[in-house]
Amino acid sequence: MYGAVVEKTPARLTAKPSWLITQLAVHAHRLASDGFGEMGARGYHYRVLVALEQFGVASQAELGRRCNMDRSDIVATINELAGQGLVERTPDPDDRRRNLVTITTAGERHLRRLEQTLDRVQEDLLAPLTSEDRQTLTHLLTQLLAHHQRG
Amino acid sequence: MYGAVVEKTPARLTAKPSWLITQLAVHAHRLASDGFGEMGARGYHYRVLVALEQFGVASQAELGRRCNMDRSDIVATINELAGQGLVERTPDPDDRRRNLVTITTAGERHLRRLEQTLDRVQEDLLAPLTSEDRQTLTHLLTQLLAHHQRG
DNA sequence: CAACCAATGTTGGAGTCACCAACGAAAGGA
DNA sequence: TCCTTTCGTTGGTGACTCCAACATTGGTTG
Fold this sequence. Notes:
The structure is a homodimer. Chain A is mainly alpha-helical. Chain A has one domain: Orthogonal Bundle (Arc Repressor Mutant, subunit A). Chain A has seven helices and three strands; from the N terminus they run αααβααββαα. Chain A has helices at about 10-15, 15-35, 45-55, 60-65, 70-85, 105-125, 130-150, and strands at about 60, 85-90, 100-105. A three-stranded antiparallel β-sheet of chain A has the order 1-3-2. Chains A and B meet through α1, α2, α3, α4 and α6 of A and α1, α2, α3, α4 and α6 of B. Chain B binds a DNA duplex through α2 and α5.
């Protein structure tokens, strides 16, 4: 009984924060994708809906900046969301370059369901941590992210 | 002077650990990819080389388990590494299903350079944190990752 | 006003990473 | 011997990130 020899991944890897972060991101992404996928959505959809619900009508370029998404990816996302009747895209009368994107009531309803799914994901993701540890982790990550979004 | 109106991303997003982790992973990945890219490598190459150097000769399936990679992605990676003379692939005489993959001295040299690049990445990534905070973060992330790789 | 520059939406692509289904060959256990 | 598992391989898919180019429009400056 030597115990199952679960193949060990190199310590050189597991010691590196970049490894820990990216691998954990894989799990986070999988959890979220599974949940979103069940309702025909994906991460991009959620991001845009949240931004719309939080700040109201916005141009596509604004949405891109707020959600950390490329303009071209916004186009595709809005196409999909509009196709499902979750947002509406109308030309801005004050600036004919822009489109104004609004969330519909169906979109808000959809967002609420996505939100619930994502809350469960957070729970799963942080399951082994005490609430104090979760707070510490969130604080450290926030610090790091803030630093990298400016510099 | 209202200050630059840097478009704010929704608090609903920035409060979620899954958002923080995945966005930070984006930065980590970008930093690492930039460094690796300058020497014609990518993450998969590094992972495999580290595993080989740490545990010696291994079959492709073993490498996949150690590096958290799909068997099919191992094939492509070994093809590329072998094409550059960084690893060698030879059939296992004791098990004719397997290939034995060995790192070459050129591979070890290449790995050392990748390692240096990645060390700089860790520095960049964690720049704003004290060494104590870094330790805390590493500990928390390790806990989480361990949990999600079993369950 | 004219010339220039910046922003916007859009198209069409790229690369990385993760993952899946299927296959033949080979090994191992019942 | 059958049955199952493992292995390497091929050939995909999807999500996310990012880039280059273009025409249209807005704003600014000479």
